[in-house]
Fold this protein.
Amino acid sequence: MVATVAKRARKQIEDVVQYALGHKTRVQILIVLNDGIYTGAELATIIDEPLSNVSNHLRRMLDDGSIEIAKEDRKGNMVQYWYKAVEIPVYSTEEAEAMTPLQRQMTVGAIVQGGVAEVFAALHIGTLANPRSLLFWHWYNVDAQGREDMDAASHRYLDEMREIEAESTNRRAKSGEAGTTMLVNLSVFERARRVRAHS
């Protein structure tokens, strides 16, 4: 994460994330790298794009810190790189508070980038418009206690999602049923724009 912070510090994180999400090829690269580690040639095959095109995107994304090198294999003058998504550990509130503002911004940027790439890809292929997909956004005006209550409710919700996954894994181990990967994207934050009181 430190190397990523150093790279991204050259630019505003929102510019880096906007660039990464601003082209269909880069979105496809991001969602494939969310699944695993791949070479440029493997990525080109998976997303069905010319290697030269993919390599150009990879170079800029790597320079920006949007992706990382997982490993490299040097053979003579040739170097083969494997790429991966930026790893984001789960931080406790105390660990997040101990970070510098820049470290927190970089972490949030990587989370937004990965999650929004998945949403864009699902929108593109139509799975986001599935009748069983649940999409919702709204803002709520709360006091200090309401903010604390929202934080607690969000943590309970995430704990419940983890429990559901564990129970599902146990059932699938017995039944042999294939799993379905579901994306859960939860954002609870103070809105950037202040709401003006209506006259």
The CA atoms of residues 140 and 191 lie 9 Å apart.
